[in-house]
Design brief:
Elements lengths: L12 E3 L4 E3 L7 H5 L10 E6 L15 E2 L17 E8 L11 H12 L17 H9 L8 E4 L15 H4 L4 E3 L2 E2 L6 H9 L7 H10 L3 H4 L1 H8 L4 H27 L17 H17 L5 E5 L18 H5 L5 H27 L1 E2 L2 E2 L4 E6 L15 E4 L10 E10 L1 H10 L21
Parallel strand pairs: 3-9, 3-12, 5-14, 6-9
Antiparallel strand pairs: 1-2, 4-14, 5-13, 7-8, 10-11, 12-13
Helix pairs in contact: 3-13, 5-10, 9-10, 10-12
């Protein structure tokens, strides 16, 4: 390890004219980590990726429990990352079921997934939920980072009249709930996400905002002086890490600017924000690249990402599917429609696998970002055709700093609450809530040690 004249705080920022960005893990920060309360001296990150409209489960579930062999068709894109994932079977989102009058199947699927609470309405009252699993963690450790949590989306919420009923829209597009009535809406515009992570939140008139963006120099140019002073105090290895990190920030900024300059938009049947890349894979990569930088620079340790809202009618012309996702999932056994659903499911996992590979390639001390993370990929629906909420598709990627032994398929008892997984992750993050939603305990068997 490079020994420098001082130990850098993990919360060190490079500052400029109204701009500040965090730093990746540097060797110079090791003494500060050693003195912290973080298990093992390194932070663990948690992220939830939510996929809408269910999965064709016939091509999802591995044939046997234990070490992962050849992955079934939909999971096949994860083959290069097979040793980094754990497939969890038989988890249930009980309150997603239509037990009470509520927000429609899709609204309940998303809203109850991370809250583990019933979605209901009483006379003269709003629908109510609980605190979502990510916010249970963020409320406890969020003060340690610039952002307690980060909420990302890849599709705009529709008007309520286009959802299952008048109540479902807010629930179909919100995973994170700070309180029983306060969702944390995801950011779906790349520019807004970039500014939330790296820029300043300035309240101003639209005209003034446009002028400021037109005249503003790059964030990296603004903090150049601070960067040069920091580099002078770092060893060669840390200088290389810092250069790689700032290069990745620059590339993201240029991607956002290029999309806005070209005015690229996509039309999946709903209004899209200006500046979104024309094809969904590029959109996914851009948003998740920013999530990666947020984790790498320790801007946050908790994130959620909605790949699409529940009931999404997004089309995927880039893979030859002009049909809407949600209508296709109501296939009624039509094999042509089922084939298209599987292709959409596989595309999502191909992009997710790319994100995992980038995390794995991102070094952090003697570890890497994927090994320091617990990344959940799943849905509040299994069969999208009949809207079932048990035997949910669930993947846990990463090791959580040697907390999980991946490369396996674990089958739990039927009706095990998915919130048991979230409570287990909270505990690994140093948070020990009495329960998360309807959790009944912790998930056993995640580690073989």
């Amino acid at each position: 390890m490079i020994v420098t004249r001082r130990a850098l705080s993990r919360r060190t920022l490079l500052r400029g004219m109204g701009a500040a960005i965090g730093l990746p893990f540097l060797d110079a920060m090791a003494p500060a980590f050693a003195a912290s309360s973080i298990p093992g001296g390194r932070p663990v990150r948690a992220a939830w990726f939510y996929v809408p409209n269910g999965i064709d489960m016939r091509h999802w579930t591995p044939a046997e429990e234990g070490p992962l062999g050849t992955l079934p068709g939909i999971l096949a894109p994860l083959e290069p990352m097979k040793k980094e994932i754990t497939v969890l079977s038989n988890l249930t989102a009980n309150w997603g079921r239509p037990l009470l009058v509520g927000a429609g199947d899709h609204g309940r699927a998303a809203a109850a997934y991370m809250t583990g609470m019933e979605v209901y309405r009483t006379a003269g009252a709003d629908l109510k939920l609980g605190v979502s699993g990510d916010q249970v963690i963020a409320n406890a450790i969020g003060s340690q980072t610039k952002l307690p949590s980060l909420e990302v989306g890849m599709e705009e919420a529709r008007m309520a009249g286009n959802c299952d009923n008048g109540y479902s829209c807010a629930y179909a597009y919100n995973l994170a709930w700070r309180t029983e009535t306060q969702p944390l809406p995801p950011i779906s515009n790349p520019r807004n996400l970039f500014e939330r992570l790296f820029g300043t939140d300035i309240v101003e008139a639209p005209e003034a905002h446009a002028r400021r963006l037109a005249m503003r120099r790059s964030i990296l140019d603004q903090i150049l002086g601070d960067t040069q002073r920091l580099e002078a105090s770092l060893g060669a290895v840390d200088r290389r890490k810092l250069d790689e990190y700032l290069t990745s920030v620059r590339e993201i900024e240029q991607q956002v600017q290029r999309s806005e300059k070209e005015g690229l938009v996509i039309d999946p049947g709903m209004e899209k924000p200006y500046g979104v890349p024309a094809e969904f894979p590029d959109y996914f990569r851009l948003m998740t690249d920013m999530m990666l930088v947020a984790f790498k620079s320790d801007l946050t340790r908790v994130a959620t990402c909605m790949i699409g809202r529940e009931g999404s009618t997004r089309a995927y012309p880039e893979i030859g599917i002009p049909d809407g996702h949600h209508p296709l999932t109501h296939h009624m056994g039509n094999m042509t429609m089922l084939d298209k659903v599987r292709e959409i499911n596989a595309l999502h996992l191909k992009l997710f696998a790319e994100f995992l590979a980038k995390l794995k390639a991102t070094k952090e001390g003697d570890s890497n970002l994927l090994d320091q993370s617990l990344i959940i990929y799943g849905s509040g629906l299994s069969d999208g055709n009949v809207h079932t909420h048990d035997q949910l598709p669930t993947i846990l990627a990463g090791r959580g700093d040697n907390f999980v032994t991946p490369g396996r398929h674990i089958i739990y008892q039927r009706e095990t609450p998915v919130c048991n997984l979230f409570a287990t992750i909270a505990e690994r993050m140093g948070v020990r809530p009495e329960h998360v939603g309807d959790s009944t305990g912790r998930l056993p068997g995640l580690s073989l040690s």
